[in-house]
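New to this. Look over this protein:
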Amino acid sequence: MMKKILIVEDDTAIAELERDYLELNGFECSIAERGTKGLEAALENDYDLILLDIMLPGMDGFEVCSKLREKKQTPVIFLSAKSDDIDKIRGLGLGADDYMTKPFSPNELVARVKAHISRYERLSGQDEIINFGKVSINTDARRVFIDGKEAPFTAKEYDLLLYLVKNKGKTVPKEVLFDKIWGFEAIGDISTVTVHIQRIRDKLGDENRIQTVWGVGYRFTM
């Protein structure tokens, strides 16, 4: 079955270029030219990945990503002319899986799309329930429940938590977390790990079991 990609981009020429390269590589593509339309399409359909511009009419890409993450964990790649690290960190912090700066290589775009879809499918295919305290992690659905109520974890927050839980008792350096979770598309610096860890702790509340090992990284204790 062909993988479905949603392109949310208001520049018709860029959107069509992305579509053409992806379709040549066996993907089925849809285009939305406004942020509101893109969010509506993303929520109503099951896409395998979303390519999301930041500067969009109606609703910018940051808001689209934030609202999408309240409902779905579909992989998101930001494609933007904004190259500042603060924008990259903000986008990743909102739950995006990657950030590419325009202009970009179409071949690199296709490679990253394939890599993110493959990674998402691999992680989603692990049917397992992990419990600690009042927390339950459903690795099949990629959902986290605290005291029976679902907690809104972004894709990267979920991946970080799951990695630490599966390596419980071990001290994991920040550099390792950055490499394992962000992979080859790692952008910015490892300070984003600290930001994500703090958000995870806030969401876990009294059930937080992530310890800081000063000067090294983090350790999850059962």
Summary: The mean pLDDT is 88. The first helix runs from residue 12 to 24. The helical segments are 12-24, 35-44, 61-68, 85-93, 106-124, 155-166, 174-182, 191-204.
